[in-house]
Amino acid sequence: xxxxxxxxxxxxxxxxxxxxxxxxxxxxxxxxxxxxxxxxxxxxxxxxxxxxxxxxxxxxxxxxxxxxxxxxxxxxxxxxxxxxxxxxxxxxxxxxxxxxxxxxxxxxxxxxxxxxxxxxxxxxxxxxxxxxxxxxxxxxxxxxxxxxxxxxxxxxxxxxxxxxxxxxxxxxxxxxxxxxxxxxxxxxxxxxxxxxxxxxxxxxxxxxxxxxxxxxxxxxxxxxxxxxxxxxxxxxxxxxxxxxxxxxxxxxxxxxxxxxxxxxxxxxxxxxxxxxxxxxxxxxxxxxxxxxxxxxxxxxxxxxxxxxxxxxxxxxxxxxxxxxxxxxxxxxxxxxxxxxxxxxxxxxxxxxxxxxxxxxxxxxxxxxxxxxxxxxxxxxxxxxxxxxxxxxxxxxxxxxxxxxxxxxxxxxxxxxxxxxxxxxxxxxxxxxxxxxxxxxxxxxxxxxxxxxxxxxxxxxxxxxxxxxxxxxxxxxxxxxxxxxxxxxxxxxxxxxxxxxxxxxxxxxxxxxxxxxxxxxxxxxxxxxxxx
Length: 531
Prior knowledge:
The chain has 13 helices and 18 strands.
């Protein structure tokens, strides 16, 4: 039954004939990238003068004979062969010195089909053999009638661009001897590297090798830094976070719960208004507070508490006692106090000392208490205006404070608003003099190790601020639930939740006994030590 035609026409188009009515369809041929031309020897890759056949591939007789006598293997597949297996062909040229069929005088080209008669070893065009042989089972050779052959078994194809299997076997990339040559070439290159060089050439090679290794190392470090940065951004959690932080985070507070003036939504209402791909939303719900927003809210309470911390760094040259300004730089203060309380500065070295400028030290891991850099805190009340100022060092990036700190040996006003100042030396000035007097090398590293033996926290206002902040969040969340059912009175201010204690910088009170992060207890420190 004829197929339905798309258009009512009195003729068939070429596409209809080939696609719908069983006409000729073009055969898609597999592309051979490195197919060897028919007139070239598969061993020397040059045009042959005396063609010979082995394993169905054409070679120059002289080249294949020497190869087999030396290696005893076929260059095509690596199997064991002998000189007697070589079939020497009778291929003829015309007056123009071109290979051609002696019967039809057809010149052989890249699109010719060429065959050989095994009994007579004569080479002809495939079309000639096909027409003259027909369906006979035994035919006399066209040039040597005394020799007969069977067209079904005694004909070998030498070249056929439409025979995918033959073209694949003539592909240079599949030749055994070429693969062997590549292997030998690689081994020879290794032997060449063992050649003795002159002193100057060795220096040049060594410098080139170092440059190459440095580039590889820089690439590896860049990749590792990128991976580390991604891991830190995905895993914002560390054991040095306070228990209050984790409790508040578990409550899932909104932005208004941690700070009344911050009423931020998830943007679903505005998004659904301007985008057709989002579901329609008519209620503006407050979004959950992020980890950074919770931290910033905690630090506001720590600043409003107006209390200071006190720390002692016991070094190999003596003690250094610092006043930590948590009332001005709460993030920097909490980071330093947490690192000291958890022993992160124990056994740390003062690895850089510049007399008249500063001494630098820090944690070997160069990580903050929260496993990621934190922001700068600049305030006009804290300046590099005297000796013994305590501030954070960084690699020159903005908001990239970690655990590295330095102590000034004199005023350094050019560092203001570049490095975060968070404390000052209040005891141990003689120890600072000994540190400044240490001899250093060209890299400002002291010859003798100056180590922080132990860090002791005497007073830390962070727990007291956390108690007030947690109470504030819980009250706000409770009021939020009441507001959903009935109107409520205005919320109390944040200062209502802060204790009425007044910080003193002259003496230590009993609040140091209630410090939850305290590691070592003592009653005096620095300039307050009674003689």
